[in-house]
Hints:
The protein has 352 residues and is an alpha/beta fold.
Amino acid sequence: MSKDIIQEDLQRMSEAKLPWRELHGKTVFVTGATGMLASYVTWLLLYLHEHAGINVSVVALCRNRQKAEQYFGSYVGKSYFRLLIQDVCNPIAYEGQVDYVFHLAGNASPHFINTDPVGIMKCNLQGTINVLELARHHDVKRVLFASTREVYGKNEDAEQLNESAFGTLDPLDDRSCYPESKRAAESLLKSYALQYGVLFNTVRIAHSYGPTMNLENDGRVMADLISDVVAGRSIVLKSTGTAVRAFLYVTDAVIGMFTVLFLGEPSTAYNLANETEPISIKDLALLLTSFRKDIDLKLVYDTRQQDNTKGYCTYKRIALDTRKSEALGWSPHISLKEGLTRTFIKTQIGVL
């Protein structure tokens, strides 16, 4: 593989059997555009413009100008791309055309759940209100909101979590800033649909990963393990590693989002996950160490009594039921090993 891994991902996604022509002549507004999923959404839209003859324009909202120019600098000045530098928590004063909105700004990192819970809630609450006000005044066709499996809360009796399988959430739990504000954001979307006719879909995504994931101060298991392997550090597991997760590669998540945007029933939710390859944290760590042939990485256990759960969801894992999304024609295609290979190589090379 080469530094063109993301370009290969974009080409693959553009070949998905979706009604891409519906984007012709339209403008798509993407919040949090330098995030892992949002960057792929933005690049895919630009790829469709440049390589598929689809005259779609993109407005990319980002907080950090330096990072935004690192990701999208080659498109600045082009007629079909607009970079909007601001915090989504501030009113969005954009007067141009907007037809679709991907509201993907937000932070799920345990690091920020611990250090900036207020900021997480502001983004999901005030940020979502600002996005919906933009959508209302521009009469957009659809808002696509990235939610999370965590909105289901604690529901340990279910065999699978379908889109109605809600359990309990303690609003005073230290990490509830994230799932509670995502729940409230979904209620905001529904409220704007009822009161103002703003159509939306919410996608509840589980454990996505990919080449543009943040490896610094994230705290999620995939990012932390890949960061250790890339840096050549021994992996220290602060548990037995028996907990199981199932991971969704970024291209499968993005295609899932566009599938829901084009084909989903308006103002409803859809689960997106890859439950075909559940894996224990220990086995994931061992798999990742195999990517470094040049050094002998060790897997070390440090299970001494300490607070290892702060910022993390400690509920029993229940698989997401994705049959509703699959009924639209979507299914994950990238295996865990292939996705990790693409992610690991790209993290050593840089972004586009």
